Amino acid sequence: MTFTSRKLKYESRNIVQELHDSLTENQFFLDPQLNMKQVCKLINCSPRKLRSVLKDEMQMKFTDFVNHARINHFLLMVENDTLKRMSIWGIAQESGFGTKNTFYEAFKKIKGTTPANYLRELEEFRKVG
Q1: pLDDT of the residue at 126
Q2: Domain limits at 68?
Q3: pTM for the predicted model, two decimal places
Q4: Of 59, 79, 102, which one is at a domain's C-terminal end?
Q5: How far from 35 is each of 39, 42, 51, 73, 78, CA to CA, in Å?
């Protein structure tokens, strides 16, 4: 491995770390109008570099990265019994989704099932366990 390739790998890891730190601290994914330029400004990197790092280091596109964070937030809210106070769509909106279609497509892509089926299976699991 050359010095240049080690440097690029180090820079990529730093960007990934900055991205995760900012995700945790700022929860930027909660903004339904979020775009790559906003995130790049937060972590001080170019859109081209962020796109490349996401593809090479995490094997995903920017929207997939954001949607994973949103789905994880949705599931945390569900675990905290938010469903007793809000609808599935209400929680999805609180998690940063701007449209039902985007939420349902992202959920199915990430979890392999619909939110309703997932929650039904979760409830059945809780009863058994």
Answers
A1: 77
A2: 61-129
A3: 0.88
A4: 59
A5: 7, 11, 12, 18, 26
